[in-house]
Amino acid sequence: MKIDHSQPLEYSTDQNKLNILGFWIFLGAEIMLFATLFTAYFTLQGRTGSGPTPGEIFEITPVLIETIVLLTSSFTIGLGVHAMRLGRKNAMLTFFGITLLLGLVFLGVEIFEFTHYYHVGATYQTSAFTAALLTTLGTHGGHVTLGLFWGLFIMIQVKKRGLTPETANKSFIFSLYWHFLDVVWIFIFSFIYLKGMM
Questions:
Q1: DSSP code of residue 5
Q2: Which residues contact 46 (CB under 8 A, 6 or more apart)?
Q3: Where is the Heme-copper oxidase subunit III family profile domain (predicted)?
Q4: Residue 150 · residue 1 · CB < 8 Å
Q5: DSSP character for 164?
Q6: Helices in the chain by DSSP H: which ranges?
Q7: pLDDT of residue 10
Q8: Which one of 31, 46, 73, 198 is separated from 20 by 20 to 30 angstroms, measured CA to CA?
Q9: How much is the pLDDT for 156?
């Protein structure tokens, strides 16, 4: 395996470059998945039947907490990648750990939010609007959950093996995934929550 020392560690081998390219292609498929969910939501958002409307169930406080927490986690994962490029393994692990803790807080607030929806009668069976809403939020939440386990496994590998071209590549790809989830959340925050509250 030929290592190009003029490149950052995560790009330092041909295999690493291919892995990153492959992951960008995978993110293209993920964009299509979320585009489909958003399209379904926008088509069905007015179909509330006898159930609650967006304005009746959305609450700004949990949504703001989720947004601040997730945007902060995007910043900390960026700091983690920066520390990785400087070869500072412990700093990188610390920032990745903070990122995962913030992801856990996000999920906790989302579970609280889903419980609130259930108590006000907004379930999958209530209306086309609630089904589309819960599917979109649940898909994003599922991705965050997957990210927590993935990030944890990467941290364990970095702790055991140190910063190698392979572990750096995995860590960088994970950071791309996490940033992607943040971008999707910005769309959810802007076009589902804020629009629904207006």
A1: T
A2: 129
A3: 21-197
A4: no
A5: -
A6: 14-44, 54-57, 60-85, 89-119, 128-161, 165-187, 195-197
A7: 81
A8: 73
A9: 97
| 171 contacts 10 by C-beta, under 8 angstroms | yes
- For the record, the structure tokens of 95 come out as 């920032």
**For residues 163 and 161, what is the distance between their CA atoms, to the nearest angstrom?**
7
What's the pLDDT score for residue 198?
85
Instruction: Say if residue 46 is exposed, middle or buried (CB neighbours under 10 Å; 0-12, 13-18, 19+).
Output: exposed
What does the alpha-carbon distance between residue 21 and residue 43 come to, in Å, rounded to a whole number?
Answer: 33
32 by Cβ neighbours in 10 Å (0-12 / 13-18 / 19+) ranks as exposed
Average pLDDT across each block of 10 residues of the chain; the chain has 198 residues. List them in order. Answer: 76 88 96 97 93 92 96 98 96 98 98 94 94 97 98 97 95 97 97 91
Specify the pLDDT at position 11.
77
Chain position carrying tokens 């949504």: 63
Instruction: Report residue 74: phi and psi, to 5°.
Output: -65, -40
Cβ count within 10 A of residue 159: 12
Say which DSSP state 193 is in: I
In order of their start, the domains of the chain are: 9-197 (1.20.120.80)
